[in-house]
Amino acid sequence: MHTTTPISDSDLVRHHASDEYIAAARRRGDKTISIHVGTVHKTLALNNRVPLVCAALGSKKFLTENHLRLISKTGPPSGQSTTVVFTYALEDGEKHAEGIDAFLELRGIGKEVFASLGGGEAFLRREREDFSRAMKTREAEGAPDKR
Questions:
Q1: Interval 82-132: pLDDT, tens
Q2: Which domain holds residue 81?
Q3: What is the full DSSP assignment across 117-146?
Q4: Considering the domain boundaries, does residue 24 fall inside one?
């Protein structure tokens, strides 16, 4: 017997926005797209789920999956209203990540190097020993201590 997992309302909002707004904008060659929370809420026939729609459209998951950059979010100070409008820049899917994402992409980059040196801890231990030995030699030769 095959069972299906029901889709969450957040996923429903993200899929709808992706299919109906983002994909269409990309086909047209648009550089930006605006999505009106009230329209999405009404189209999906949601009941009192405006905060969920706002959260889904502003989520990192939505931005990442669709290669978007949030340009602006207009509406009342609460940010939770049918009048909220999200405006996104459509970015190239091949574009490299910026900021912290670019930094996180470097994670593990030296793994093979440290492995060839006997591991990160062994490498650091040897470096500290070499430094201490060099400092002792320097002090024995009469050089001033610069630690």
A1: 999 999 999 886 554 556 666 667 777 777 777 787 888 888 899 999 999
A2: 9-95
A3: TT-HHHHHHHHHHHHHHHHHHHHHTTPPP-
A4: yes
